[in-house]
Amino acid sequence: MPYMFEFWALEHQLPPDGDWRTWIMLGGRGAGKTRAGAEWVRAHVEGSRPGDPGRAARVGLIGETLDQVREVMVFGESGIMAATPPDRRPQWIASRRMLIWPNGAMAHAFSAHDPDSLRGPQFDLVWADELAKWKRADEAWNMIQFCLRLGDDPKACVTTTPRNVAALKTLLDAPSTAITQAATKANRANLPEAFLREVERRYAGTSLGMQELDGVLLTEPEGALWTVETLDAARRERPEQFDRVIVAVDPPVTGKSTSDECGIVVVGIVQAGDPSQWGAWVIEDATVAGKSPVGWAQAAVDAFHRHDADRVVAEVNQGGEMVETILRQVAPMIPYRGVHASRSKAARAEPAAALYEQRRVHHLRGLAQLEQQMLMMTRAGFAGPGSPDRVDALVWALYEGIIEPARSWSRPRMRSL
Hints:
Blueprint: H1 5-8, E1 22-27, H2 33-45, E2 58-63, H3 66-74, H4 80-83, E3 91-93, E4 98-100, E5 106-111, E6 125-129, H5 137-147, E7 155-160, H6 166-173, E8 177-182, H7 193-203, H8 207-212, H9 228-234, E9 244-250, E10 263-270, E11 279-285, H10 293-306, E12 311-315, H11 321-330, E13 336-339, H12 345-357, E14 361-363, H13 368-375, E15 377-378, E16 381-382, H14 389-410
Parallel strand pairs: 1-7, 1-8, 2-5, 2-6, 6-7, 9-12, 11-14, 12-13
Antiparallel strand pairs: 3-4, 4-5, 9-10, 10-11, 15-16
Helix pairs in contact: 10-11, 12-14
């Protein structure tokens, strides 16, 4: 039973159906990627009995280094040796960096650091591990394609934690690629609870956590105003108190279930006390979707009371005075200011992005969806799907809390004669 992988494997560890040439398994740390790759190789090289031929006889094992191929893919706790029953277990020949199965199938180990070593070999199966870490990923992957020329249907399996590298993005976009994805917690049954508690405490709700725990590829298009590094540098613990708290709202055009989200972002301002705490702190992304006008207004008012805020700021380009009317239906005495956008979303976002470069904006945890949207905002506009409602709300909060006050302070004052 321990070796009947198809019986107890998690869904994301099984190859997808359909006609594909490359299967990419994107997963968080500990999601079971290595075991999935090892079992995929087993399923192809083993026959019904130990000496029977399988569907593949020549396999390429490519990792970032030869040491990683040997220690992770071959001899690791989830590697080929550990996954294979004793009567089918291959022999490792260190001098030749290869495995030989009882049925004669062979697997050769290669380092992605040396793409030229892949000139000449030929395979009907390739397992590539942690491709997103390869320093020469483009060159190595190109060589792999020329090696996959044996058998009737040569295939490759790529197991990797996603990173924003060109080779991985190109491969994901290829029509011959099939993709499965899983978070670390999908493999909770096989991981220590102490490990899960610690990494979730440290990284849940952060862009780094989305990449390393959720297995989400965080892309930064050309001309991005924010980067993963910028957002990670902005993350800090909450200060003791705020001098002002602002709730910014970017209302949707309509209140239908299919309409855009209503961006609601809460920002606290620190202007006194410890200078290291000065600046803006993004406290909460309270964005809602598919709500009626009264529904999103109630969500904004709830955020106002939850954080004991000082003011609600809302963009009124689409709704005009109706935005204030709806908010006051829910909370008649709420402090409110309507703001009107006279420039494009990208042009408004640039001053806000500059504040991040100056380390004047800080993020608390739990803002992963907002941060993912921020990564898609470029100088030419929003490169993601839909509308950047969360980013719009953030920008209005920063205008109200830092940008506009700074402009008023910098204006020269006229003395009366």
